[in-house]
Amino acid sequence: MKVLFLTVSIGGGHTKAAEAIKEFVDKKYGSSSTIIIDALKYVSPVADKLIVGSYLSTLKKTPKVYGELYKLSEYKENISDFTKTVNKILSNKLCKYINEFNPSIIVCTHAFPVHMVSNLKRKRKITVPVIAVVTDYANHMFWKTDNVDAFIVAHDYVKQRMIETGIPPHKIYPHGIPVSSGFLIKKDKKFIRKELGLDDKLTMLVMGGLLGMGKVEDIFRNLINCKRDLQVIAVTGDNQKLKEDLEEMAQNTDKKIKIFGYTNRISDLMDASDFLITKPGGLTITEALAKNIPILLLPPIPGQEERNAKFLLNCGVAATFYPEDSVDGLLTQVFDTPLRYQHMKEMASCLSKPNSSQDIVELMERFVPPENKLLDI
Fold first, then answer.
1. pLDDT in tens, 308-331
2. Which residues make Cβ contacts (< 8 Å) with residue 307, sequence separation at least 6?
3. How many CA atoms lie within 13 Å of 246's alpha carbon, on the beta-carbon side?
4. Distance of CA 103 to the CA centre of its chain
5. How many other C-beta atoms can be found within 10 angstroms of the C-beta atom of residue 294?
6. Cα distance between residue 14 and residue 124, in whole Å
7. Any idea where the domains of the chain sit in the sequence?
8. What does CATH list as the number for 3-177+355-373?
């Protein structure tokens, strides 16, 4: 089975979702050819730099502006239509690559390439089946498009919201957001803590996302200054300055602190921790749910993160943790009450979909002709 994964490198989560499905395909079909392409970067490096750069700059400098644009794009067709038009223009170069690679199926983990391939199918330039994977716990009108064979969503709630926008129910599958198989293995907490040089006691994992964005500094300061006997693991992603700032702060505390920049040990760090403190990005949240770790949410970026946060809070798997909150007071609520803490863990287990990648691949097989399932390069 030849699979073409199309994504966009914004934040890291979309690519990680593609990698998780690819991992399962490669394991099941050893002779298959699978490839992940950053669609926007491939068709136009200039457009990629402009769009992704503007997106990240807006998130960092004026998140409220981004939030308003996000909301307006659902109700103001001219904003959404402009983006769709850009994708249509850029889709022609992608068409050539698709025809050369000749995939059995295309899997898109970002809405941009969904519209590109939808446009190509509409023009009958390609006929390959297309599956879209939504990597948030919320829907957005931008996902609504024709010529997509199936939509993978995180939960029945997202499916219902999609149905309300006019997407046929039979096209929507709540198989969950796929994560790497490493997050499906739970290691012994005491063992991992010892391996990391930590004590066997209350451990807080602070993550600001791949780019190290969020109110991490304020939260970190609150944690190391609180009276509670705890230790802290912090992950700053690619934000080197943030890492250096946290390391400087850590010199002024007796608490055990471990600070990582970009790391491939997130699974182990979650196993070592009692709480994950993070912004509500779709992939990070899904990895935490797979680990059944209770979540304390940093202030979300207006837009999809706000909606992710609302979903998690309504489900009882998370609580909010803002810079002005008392660490000791919050832990009194969510940790010192065993029933509450256990409930958060159980709800994480309920929301987790450990078979997501397998279910998605089995769905892909339904759309691929039998003779193409064992097709090699």
1. 999 999 999 999 999 899 999 999
2. 136, 137, 138
3. 30
4. 25
5. 24
6. 27
7. 3-177+355-373, 183-351
8. 3.40.50
